Amino acid sequence: MTEEEYIGIVGEIFDGYTDITFKGKTVYIKHFSIRDQRYIHRFYNKYKSIAESKGIPSEKEMLDSLREDGLWSDDDDRKIIDLEQELEGLRGAKRNSFLPSQKKHIQETIDTKQKELHFLFTKKAELVGKTSERYGSQRSNEEFIRYLIYDDQECSRHFFTDEQFANLSEEEVEFFVRENDYISRRLNENNIQHVVLRDFFNMYMSQTEDVSAFYGKPIIELSVYQLKLAIYARIFFNIFQYNEDIPETMKQDPQAILDFVDRKKNKDTKSYVNTEKGASAVFGATKEDLEAIDPSARKVSLSDEIAKSGGVMNMDQLIELMG
What we know:
By secondary structure, the chain is mainly alpha-helical.
């Protein structure tokens, strides 16, 4: 992403809306707030009730029928639960690991398990088909999008009335769904984290301690993206305040910064040894791990040194190697 695109993201978040063109007219899609989200639940209940009144079965009813036909079982549900619990444990292990090679290996396992979970969810959804819950979810999302579309920059006048929106074609509704999805993807947490680390944002970082004063309005009126921008700015500002040894090459890479801080916190684990003479030993670490943990430390491959000693090293040799 270019610097101009990052600046554009900040400007959009500050505005609290994204403007698009629909049939030659400028339309403003409001960035939703926590308070706005209450409407999703209202719309969901409304359309779920409509579906039930039309005789559309619930998910439970469909699953009971599938179990009777032998197309889905309790074992399948248990596999989903087991995979979700396993993924939670793997993510925790990844957070607690401070070796990049270990993190990479755990992430590969996570990716594999996520694919297995996605396969089961997809299979279940295809078998269950249309339910009152799915109808309620789909229609409530569309209704919520109507709620977010405005005629003015202040987002005070809805662009469509209920009747006008109901008369839109399927393609026109899908157009707004895609535009709103695109906004969500572009203003995702990863991009927001990168934004707050760009040079042009430095002047704002220290000002985000008081979020209301920063934006000039109450917190309850802030969009989710405005809150995330302020939160991540505060997180990285505090990290820089208390970690002056972060390498310059990392200072615009959010994940590298977070990993660096995690490694520092975990240096007191039993697998890490730091000698008075500056040599470092991390058992099970690769050369790349050692470079990431302490770029200034002397790197020695234990396996290489053992090979040089004929396959055996005594304690005196190990002590000398460490010193």
